[in-house]
Design a protein that fits this description.
Elements: E1 2-15, E2 18-23, E3 26-32, H1 39-51, E4 55-56, E5 62-64, E6 72-77, H2 99-117, E7 122-123, E8 130-145
Parallel strand pairs: 3-6, 6-7
Antiparallel strand pairs: 1-2, 1-3, 1-8, 4-5
Helix pairs in contact: 1-2
Length: 150
Amino acid sequence: MRIVIQRVSQAEVKVEGKTVGAIEKGLLVLLGIENDDNYSDTEWMVNKLLNLRIFNDKNQVMNCSVLDVQGELMVISQFTLIAATKKGNRPSFIRAARHETALKLYEQFVSMSVQKLGKKIAKGIFGADMKVSLTNDGPVTIIIDSKNRE
């Protein structure tokens, strides 16, 4: 499981020209799911995400989590994060989870995030062609891979 986290002052996702999700201050999360990901990856990733201290405290030091600042969360499924680019110039998505598996883990990720954050989160529509816009705050962008737990 791989996520790209962007600290945002606002973000919005549209499908077919209609806004299906929007947030103010918080985190935009792009989520890619691999064939061999499981509940353990989801649980670890959600805990890491929600406790990651990437918001400024009163001294302008990144010392607060999205939980601490009561920020919002938007989760967008993005299988292209699992692209393998080692050979040639055309990305391979062979490691990306099949639709049924990815949807199940995406829904677990969202559900677990809602439970731990204590409020509704914004999301896109799984498998849809989405248009995501955002204002990256900082900019702050972090990549986390559950297979590389540093």
